[in-house]
Every structure is written in structure tokens, then in C-alpha cells.
């Protein structure tokens, strides 16, 4: 977790520098536009507030995450396997579960969800078909290993 804390503090610093550079760059462009006698009559704001605020809030978000992770790391007092310099890759290799390598059911579930959202845009009747296909696909995916060649 210490690596994550450092990563987010580096990101927060980067976004702060980017925010300051963006604001200064806008001020320079505005000064050049004002001092140019052949410039168009369109007026520019001195600072692009949208970009400045977005970069500033991105800095705040990264700082919040870094602060929170730092507090959690300090409160738990333990080191995670990825913080150990002498650790192996296998030290942080959890069991992720079982995934069926030859299953077609997830593709059918995704297609049914696509039909549901298409129906929201085009017509409700397509959503009804998508919900029906989705229920069948979900039941098929759930009970895939209860019958047939892969039964347990």
C-alpha cells in the first residue's frame, strides 16, 4: 500500500504542476492576444476556467486518495506483499475463482444487455426481447456445469 500512497502523491504533484502551467499558459496567450493590434475582435477570457478548475479538482482528488491510503496504511501497520522489496510474484497471487474457458453464455448475456439498451433508444419492444434472452442466458450460465459433459 505504500507504493500506492507514493504513486498518488506523485500524481497529485503532477496535476498541481499541470494546473499552474495551464493557467500561466492561458495568461501568456491572453497577453499576446491583447497586445496584438491585428487580433480579431473576439475577446478571450484571461483564464480558461474550465480547464483550470478541472485540473485543480483532479489534484484535489489524487491528494484525497493519497491521504486516505496513507492513513489506512498507518492505521493497519502491516506491509502488503507488493511493498516487500525481496518479495516474489507468488507472494501476492490470490485465487481469483473459476472461469469456464469454453463458455458461450457470457457472450449471450452481453448481447441481451445490448438489446436492452438498444430497446431503450429505439423501442421498448426490443428491450422486452432482450430481457427474455438475458434471463435464459443467465440461467444457462448459472447451471452450465450441472448437466452434460461438464456435470459435477
Please tell me about this protein's structure.
By secondary structure, the chain is mainly alpha-helical. It folds into two domains: 2-88; 105-150. 64% of the residues lie in helices and 0% in strands. It is built from four helices and no strands. It has helices at 2-35, 49-76, 105-121, 124-142. Helix 1 (2-35) packs antiparallel against helix 2 (49-76) and helix 3 (105-121) packs antiparallel against helix 4 (124-142). The mean pLDDT is 86.
Write the layout of secondary structure elements.
Blueprint: H1 2-35, H2 49-76, H3 105-121, H4 124-142
Question: Main traits of this protein?
Answer:
flat; single chain; 152 residues; mainly alpha
Q: In which range does the helix fraction lie?
A: 55-70%
Total strand segments: 0
What's the number of structural domains? Answer: 2
Low-confidence stretches: none
Largest β-sheet summary: none
The H-and-E topology, N to C, reads as HHHH
Helix-and-strand structural type:
mainly alpha
Question: Strand content of the residues, in percent?
Answer: under 5%
- The averaged pLDDT comes out at 86
What shape does the CA trace take?
A: flat
Q: Give the CA-CA distance, first to last residue.
A: 40 Å
| Rg from alpha-carbon coordinates | 27 Å
Number of helices: 4
Amino acid at each position: 500500500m505504500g507504493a500506492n500512497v507514493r504513486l498518488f502523491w506523485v500524481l497529485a504533484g503532477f496535476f498541481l504542476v499541470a494546473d499552474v502551467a495551464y493557467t500561466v499558459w492561458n495568461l501568456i496567450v491572453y497577453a499576446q492576444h491583447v497586445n496584438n493590434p491585428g487580433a480579431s475582435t473576439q475577446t478571450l477570457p484571461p483564464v480558461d476556467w474550465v480547464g483550470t478548475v478541472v485540473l485543480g479538482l483532479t489534484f484535489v482528488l489524487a491528494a484525497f486518495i493519497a491521504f486516505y491510503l496513507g492513513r489506512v496504511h498507518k492505521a493497519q501497520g502491516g506491509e502488503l506483499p507488493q511493498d516487500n522489496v525481496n518479495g516474489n510474484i507468488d507472494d501476492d497471487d490470490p485465487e481469483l475463482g473459476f472461469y469456464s474457458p469454453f463458455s458461450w453464455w457470457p457472450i449471450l448475456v452481453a448481447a441481451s444487455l445490448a438489446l436492452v439498451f438498444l430497446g431503450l433508444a429505439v423501442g421498448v419492444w426490443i428491450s422486452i426481447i432482450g430481457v427474455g434472452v438475458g434471463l435464459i442466458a443467465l440461467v444457462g450460465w448459472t447451471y452450465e456445469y450441472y448437466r452434460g459433459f461438464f456435470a459435477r
